[in-house]
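User: I'm new to structure prediction. If I give you an amino acid sequence, what do you actually give back? Let's try with this one:
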Amino acid sequence: MRFPTNPALLLPDGGGAFVHEGPVGGGGAFGGAGNPCCNGPELLPGTKLEPLDADGTLLPFHHFPMLLPAEFPRRLWGAEFWATTIVTEFAATPWARTVTVGPPPDCPDTIRDEIYQLLLLAKDRSTFSAEIVAQATNPLPYWLNLLNITAASHPATWQAILAANECGHVVAMHYKRSFARPRPVQHYPALMPPLHTPAHPSYPSGHALEAMTVARIVEHIYPALAQAKPPTRGPADALARRIALNREIAGVHFESDSKAGFILADLLAPHLLTVPSFAATVAAAQAEWGTIPTHTFDPPTEGLKDTKALTEDLRIPLKITR
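Assistant: Good question. You get back a string of structure tokens that encode the predicted 3D arrangement of the chain. For your 322 residues, that looks like this:
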């Protein structure tokens, strides 16, 4: 039997022929942008393709067997879509009872001090500009780079990262709406952030909350990433803090925004592990890693400068002297 084109693009019209149903990936019965089943040639609307036997004889539609799968396979779920189902399950839990944070500081002197700190950080914008711009829209690839994985090599790990990030986003928006804190540039326009001011309030920092939530879940999946000799932090924690600090260097967040995000993340991560679908995804992610021998080491100090000029709590773990 032969078909003139990819049968996945064709639908039965009830008369034994196959009729094209819209453009490739256009949302027909098999559609959706990027759907791997829709990579065949596109036909003009209304084109009919008749299934032919080897000798050219027209075969009736009922000649073909019907498949009766029990359900859509879990392994075929897109990671983003699966993460969305976890978010809906998480949202139905009473998370707001335990994942809480106090209001932002409103004392003018405190706000002035935070603005002054942002002005000091602004001098490093050129150094961190590539990270600032990349992380403004999507910092998640930095986690793949830290773990040296891809979405294909460790699908459950990637799904856990996506779900943790999205749940963090829900929590961030909840408290942003509650507190409605102005952005730093609204207090002091001379900050001149190199990015457009996000279209939502400042407190808490969504980047800080989401990144630290991902860090805590990654550390749960792969505990070696939490190991470090004090005061050095583990690499997952350090990446989350760097993502948050880059938002301060850009001038779009106060330090207190970031700290609130970290507080919420440390409360959110344990709660996420009580959500059944998320816990199952994390368990599958742990199975992807197995046992990996690790060791810690003392980071180099020679040739490095003290970063207290930037942040008193050394939120940049290592910075090469320029």
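You can read the tokens as a compact description of the fold. Here is one thing that stands out. Confidence is low (pLDDT under 50) at residues 1-40, 304-322.
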